[in-house]
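queue> pop job 88
queue> type: inverse folding (structure -> sequence)
queue> payload:
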């Protein structure tokens, strides 16, 4: 949680400009979204408190335009797969000298059943993350954001099959896989397309824990950022850190309020 104070009578920070996320409305394209609270026993627009979630959360994000009846739109996020370096070595599950512990294998098999689909060559498998500790989640597709990184160590694994050269997986929105022979969908400023893999069985999939460099990338640290310390110290710093883009936006918002001079938000500049 981040808390911003300002003195009574002074200019209030423009929270809407800096904190409203962007998303792609099917009718209006890229827009800055509005937070919309549900009416539940826990919360309401008059008592806004809770977490984001279309199905289970207390609020959603909507297009600000009335022409689409303020359609619900998922905010643009960075997929876990964008932070993962799939060129790093990873053993096939069936060739490991030391078998994975039962609980880890249970989560991997649950993910295999959920994220695969039958194909002529075996199974199409979308890369997915395994969450080893904490929370109620055990796995999620790598096209979603990575779950919370903590200072307690690396608790995320990645499962994927060797990639096929002819099927694309967009990392955003509700897009599905498609043959690479068709035109590529709209490209954004980030690398948001990857290739799904094929495997005849789960044992042919690869599994490894993510590296500290990937955890840093998932936290939006640039690859050029230097962490001083060993691996455990680096993970502790990453887990305790404020993501650089959040720090940038909060400071920019406060500076703008204090000085009265407009500070350009990178996302707004991009939209313009």
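queue> result:
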């Amino acid at each position: 949680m981040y808390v911003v104070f300002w003195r009574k009578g002074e200019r209030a920070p423009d929270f809407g400009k800096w904190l409203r996320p962007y998303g792609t409305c099917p009718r209006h394209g890229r827009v800055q979204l509005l937070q919309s609270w549900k009416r539940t026993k826990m919360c309401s627009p008059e008592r806004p408190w809770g977490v984001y979630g279309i199905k289970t959360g207390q609020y959603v994000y909507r297009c600000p335009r009335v022409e689409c009846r303020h359609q619900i739109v998922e905010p643009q996020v960075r997929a876990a797969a964008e932070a993962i370096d799939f060129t790093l070595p990873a053993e096939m599950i069936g060739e490991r000298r030391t078998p994975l512990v039962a609980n880890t294998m249970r989560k991997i098999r649950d993910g295999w059943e959920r994220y695969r689909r039958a194909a002529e060559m075996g199974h199409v498998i979308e890369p997915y993350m395994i969450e080893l500790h904490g929370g109620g989640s055990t796995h999620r597709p790598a096209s979603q954001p990575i779950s919370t990184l903590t200072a307690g160590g690396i608790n995320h694994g990645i499962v994927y099959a060797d990639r096929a050269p002819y099927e694309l997986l967009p990392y955003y929105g509700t897009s599905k896989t498609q043959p690479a022979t068709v035109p590529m969908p709209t490209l954004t400023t980030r690398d948001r397309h990857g290739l799904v893999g094929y495997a005849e069985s789960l044992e042919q999939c690869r599994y490894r824990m993510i590296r500290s460099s990937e955890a840093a990338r998932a936290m939006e640290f640039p690859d050029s950022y230097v962490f001083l310390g060993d691996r455990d110290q680096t993970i502790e710093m990453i887990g305790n850190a404020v993501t650089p883009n959040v720090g940038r936006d909060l400071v920019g918002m406060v500076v703008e309020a204090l000085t009265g001079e407009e500070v350009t938000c990178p996302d707004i500049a991009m939209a313009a």
